[in-house]
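Bug #77: duplicate submission created two jobs. Keeping one. Sequence:
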Amino acid sequence: MTTSENVLEVYRYAFDCARSGDGTWLAAFIEAGGSADLTNDKGDTLLILAAYHARVEAVSILLAAGADVERVNDNGQTALAAAVFRRSRELVELFLTADANPDTGTRSATTIATFFGLDDMAELLTEHR
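Kept job's structure:
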């Protein structure tokens, strides 16, 4: 295996850890110099994937490492939008505390809450304005 293949394997594993919520591995990855804003071929960041899979510990670690809460994937979604879609009050509150804008992206958190009739999420977003 070449060095570039090894690096790609590590990056793939980082995305798997974001999905599965392996915060310990993600923290070690970042401490070793890995980017908290690593992005895949669909524009999904580690933070977006962790949020979509409702992995609170992984999201907390990535936020503490300075992950960009305003990054938008190729579908126009942010990590906050993913948290709203998953109806994770805890994650939504984490993102809002980290100054995530509910209106960022073409499929923003606000848009998703409205489109899917997630009144509890829309109310939570409104409370933080």
